[in-house]
Amino acid sequence: MSIISKSAIATGDGxxxxxxxxxxxxxxxxxxxxxxxxxxxxxxxxxxxxxxxxVLGHEGAGVVEQIGSKVTDFKVGDKVILNxxxxxxxxxxxxxxxxxxxxxxxxxxxxxxxxxxxxAHLEGSLWNDKPIERSFNIGTxxxxxxxxxxxxxxxxxxxxxxxxxxxxxxVMTGYGSVVNSAELTAGSSAVVLGTGxxxxxxxxxAKVSGASKIIAIDINEERxxxxxxxxxxxxxxxxxxxxxxxxxxxxxxxxxxxxxADYAFECTAVPxxxxxxxxxxxxxxxxxxxxxxxxxxxxxxxxxxxxxxYINPLYGKCRPQIxxxxxxxxxxxxxxxxDEMITRTYPLENLQQAFDDMLAGRNAKGVIVFN
Length: 371
Description:
The chain is of the alpha/beta class. Helix content is 23%, strand content 26%. The protein has 10 helices and 19 strands. It has helices at residues 42-46, 92-95, 161-165, 170-182, 197-208, 221-230, 246-255, 276-280, 320-332, 351-359; strands at residues 3-10, 16-23, 30-39, 54-55, 61-67, 79-82, 125-127, 130-131, 133-134, 144-148, 152-154, 189-193, 213-218, 234-237, 261-266, 281-289, 309-311, 344-347, 366-369. The strands form 3 sheets. Strands 3, 5, 6, 10, 11, 18 and 19 form a 7-stranded mixed sheet that branches. Strands 8-7-2-1-4-9 form a 6-stranded mixed sheet, with no helix packed on it. The protein has a 6-stranded parallel sheet with strand order 14-13-12-15-16-17, sandwiched between helices. Helix 5 links the parallel strand 12 and strand 13 (213-218). It starts with a strand and ends with a strand.
């Protein structure tokens, strides 16, 4: 029997509606998850303009409702965190250890933010009797999600579901960009540009990694205060008139023996700041473009002098079955703050308010919750 799921559906023209989607019984290697919480990300708002109907949402956690005949690692009632970067483990990148950029399954590198065959069958979700894509192949802003078994990571913790849900993307992206991608070493100095949800998790990743100095930069005083709570040792309030944050870069140098920081992480998603982390780091330092800017920008090549490294990681080089349990363990030990990151929760019916609050910068993280 199919399940009727109340879902947030992007209509492809910048708008969304709340409507019902019919969820089919899972195939042999698939699972139906009853969503309990879905984190909200700027990408969810961007997806309103992808020009096609999709079930919104790519961060989520819930409880297994149904399992396919060949599912062995999960049973009905298991708590799970959903993951959109399901590796095939056979392609070149997976064999190289880059599960997050799987050449067959990744909706980003293989599917152009569309359906890929490494995920649950497309016909398993019907809207108006037609198959509908699910955002990043999972579609978490809905009462139910049909996913592959490989998209589930068991949650062996009593953490609240809203906190578990944000691990799916925002927490993993920020933390992983520090620990997996930049491989920040203990005793290093780090600058974090932008202290929203992702930036706060970069700060946490730097703290867990043993950074001696963590400098948070933002135009919002309240966010800077929050950054201190999450581990920032120093803060700089940026000026909107400071083009490229060059003045802020001078402040960073004053805090770092005149050299610049060892690492700088751009978390603003503002294209004109794409080169800003290069201005913050010392010679032979590492700049990390965390926020996923995908626009043409102009960079002064002098900023690369000398021996500076600039990387643009996806999803914090996530290895879901390895990294998610690590994050849960850090939370359980009190070393990772997640509950404190959730500024507000919303019922599905208040999704527009959640988007408005996110775009206005009112929340570190907003989460849609379900009964």
